[in-house]
Write a structure and sequence with these properties.
The protein has 169 residues and is an alpha+beta fold. It is 20% helix and 29% strand. It is built from three helices and seven strands. Strand 2 and strand 3 form a beta hairpin.
């Protein structure tokens, strides 16, 4: 529903049934599902970028705006943040990458670093100009990470390949 929360305002059964909830509630559903599957998973509390860096001396609960999920998937640690089908699994929302986050592991509570992963965008153009002055152009774009998020969205909205002139003169 576009809201960030650390606490659940609604029962998770209601969130599931209504297919709508805050970001925190949806991530808590994910946490519950992973734990039911006997996958090691814990809540991760984060202060969003707009509210300043967290105070790491003590995990003061009031400083956190959002909850994500830390999971151990076959020995690989992964942060999960359900919100955008066009973002790779393990890439939290960009607003959550605010330096550090608190993992609520009862056996090993700890701060973890949240760094912005490397992103890249590469564009290549192959152009052939015919004798009549018309050009054939092939554009190839490769995007990784957060740059790829928007590209995946655009591809999902494209109905068919584009062929033809950019504009008629």
């Amino acid at each position: 529903d576009g809201q960030y929360t650390v606490k659940t305002e609604n029962s998770l059964n209601d969130v599931w049934a209504n297919k709508q909830g805050s970001a925190g509630e949806i991530n808590m559903l994910l946490l519950g599902i992973l734990q039911q599957l006997e996958i090691e998973a814990h809540p991760v509390l984060v202060s969003l970028r707009g509210t300043g860096s967290p105070i790491t001396k003590d995990p003061i609960f009031e400083q956190f705006d959002h909850v994500m999920v830390w999971a151990n998937l076959d020995g690989e640690e992964m942060l999960m943040d359900v919100y955008d089908p066009y973002l790779e699994l393990g890439w939290p929302r960009f607003e959550a990458l605010n330096g550090q986050a608190w993992v609520g592991d009862p056996e090993d509570p700890r701060w973890i670093d949240l760094e912005v992963p490397k992103m890249s965008r590469k564009i290549s153009v192959d152009m052939k100009i015919a004798t009549d002055g018309m050009a054939q152009v092939r554009i190839k774009s490769t995007m990784d990470g957060y740059d790829a998020q928007h590209g995946r969205y655009l591809l999902s909205t494209q109905r068919e390949p584009w062929h033809g002139p950019l504009m008629n003169t």
